[in-house]
Amino acid sequence: MSSPFANNSILEIIKRYRTIWSLYHLSALAQWDMNTYMPEDGINARSEALGKVAVLSQKLFLDNDFVSLIQKAEKEKLNDYEKALIRLLKRDLRHYQKLPPEFIEEFTKVTNEAHMAWKNAKEKNKFSLFEPDLEKIVELSRKKAEYLGYEKHPYDALLDEYEEGLTTEDVQKYFDSIKKPIISLLKYIKNSPKYKNRHPLENEKYETLKMEQLNKKFLELVHNNSNNLRMDVAPHPFSTSLGIGDARITTRYEGKNFKQSYSSTIHEFGHALYDLQCGKELAYTPIGTGTSLVIQESQSRLWENMIGKSREFIRMFYSDITKLNANIKKYSIDDIYEYMNSVKPSPIRTGADEITYHLHVLIRFEIEKGLIEGKISVKDLPKIWAEKYESYLGIKPKTDTEGVLQDIHWSQGNIGYFPTYSMGTSLSVIWKNEMEKDIGKISGILTSKEGIKKIEEWLRTNIHQYGSTYTFKEIVKRVTGKEFSPQPLLDYLKEKYKGIY
């Protein structure tokens, strides 16, 4: 594809934007390093630097000539790509115009320092070590909502940062539509004679090196260019794209229950593939990366659940899985499939099954909403967290580490992110259904590397190549001809798990 940008005003904007992009690039690199290799004592210097860079980015964005160019281009005849570029620039412009520079610097410094406090608190299983930082973040998030503005609820302003136009009312309606069916299906499974409180494979230990080799084997199968993707270790797995040819994912190794590391790696690969398959002609522009957190999470959850946990995919790695531990050799492919897809309430969201996962996200949505409303106090979070887990999942976390401290998001100031995980999972089922109409059942495709390439090409053609050109709602309508709905998720879960249980 040749360059989609022809308008002279747009070309000048792209030229000027490259400096802003470069600051974003270096900030992302600094944050990746902070999460992987940076010595703990470097946090103050890193926070100071990132705070200054954030203010510099704002200053460049608000330059009168740059703003005038955006306003001029907006009135001209533009194609879809150029319209999208202006849409996203105006979105960022509103953000920078409404947030004072001193607020941006403070928020950046506080959240970067909070990351290390969270990490220490999680390691030491002590929420009180993170509590003061989280207090600051919640207060700053309330201020941010007021600065940005909203129509009905302050949480709307924060949701909109992660999913354009998403509101508290939208999220509430979404969870209201899936909550009862999910709880009902969970009850059905728990009453099944096949239900197990604990699968024996959860206790099987592995050596980190062997698990790392399995994860690399997976990456070799699904991705043929080791020069543009690397894998590292982090306390909470994440993915970041620094630009063309530089995607980075992280995973974790806990020494047992291998599906946790396996699933994290596949999940993060889904994110990386999206960014790697964005059109190269969009690089260094505001639309050069994946659009929308709901779309992003739909990619990671598609790979994690529909591909990674399928019997066919497990068969491709069966011999490698049995090398993790001599005792695992006694388990068949069907045993491992059952283990990968076992359903039971557990305290950790990232390791949750496809059914209870949505209740984990619902709990976080309700807590975040309460924090922003001022109805929930940070000091009460461990207690409230435990109460909600007992109410929805029938379990209580034994420690702060497996409870309120398990996720990295709040330490990064990412309040409003969590709902996209559940909505993205719903969307992943929609993509699966559409893909199977075009190229056949995934179960029939996952028999060779060529089949995997077909899946990746379908994703590239229908979703990835456009970068951020289309919004979540637009791209769903373009691909399916329909509006987004959680009903396909409910149908998928019912069919799959009533078949297993």
Describe this structure in words.
The chain contains 20 helices and three strands. It is mostly helical and 501 residues long. The chain has two domains: 8-148, Methane Monooxygenase Hydroxylase, Chain G, domain 1 (Up-down Bundle), CATH 1.20.58; 168-500, Neurolysin, domain 3 (Orthogonal Bundle), CATH 1.10.1370. Helix 8 (168-190) packs antiparallel against helix 14. The radius of gyration is 22 Å and the shape is globular. The model has no long low-confidence stretch (mean pLDDT 95).
Task: Give me some keywords for this one.
20 helices, 501 residues, Methane Monooxygenase Hydroxylase, Chain G, domain 1, Neurolysin, domain 3, mainly alpha, globular, 2 domains
